[in-house]
Fold this sequence. Notes:
By secondary structure, the chain is mainly alpha-helical. The chain has a single domain, classed as Four Helix Bundle (Hemerythrin (Met), subunit A) (Up-down Bundle), CATH 1.20.120. Helices cover 78% and strands 0% of the residues. It is built from seven helices and no strands. Helix 5 runs antiparallel to helix 6.
Amino acid sequence: MTIRELYDIIDGNYDQAVRVMKSEKLIDKYVRKLKNSHLDDMMEEAYGTMDAARLFESAHAMKGVCSNLGLDALARAADEITEEFRPGNPRRLSDEEALIKLRATVERYRAAVAGIEQYEAGC
C-alpha cells in the first residue's frame, strides 16, 4: 500500500498533507506517529471526569495534528469538540450530545490508526 492509498482509506487529503509537510517522507514519518499519540484515550479520560479544560486541550491537539496531516474529516470532528469546550465559549450541546460527538471522533481516529497499522504491515 502506498501512502496515497492509505490516505484514501482513512479519508485523508493527501494533496493537503503534501502542501503542509512538503515531502512524502515527512508525511510517512508523522502519520506513523499519530497511532502512538493516544489522543483518543486522552479525550475519553477527560470526558470521564468532564474536565472541560482537558477535553479542549486533547481535542485541540487532535485537530492540529490532523489538520497538518491532511486528515480533514478527523480534524473537523475534533474541531467540534474543541469549540464546544473552548474556554469562554458557552456550551451548546448537552453532555449526552457531546459524548455522541466525542465517541464518533474517537471511532474515526481509531479507524485512521487501523489504516496506519495496515499501511505499516504492507511496508
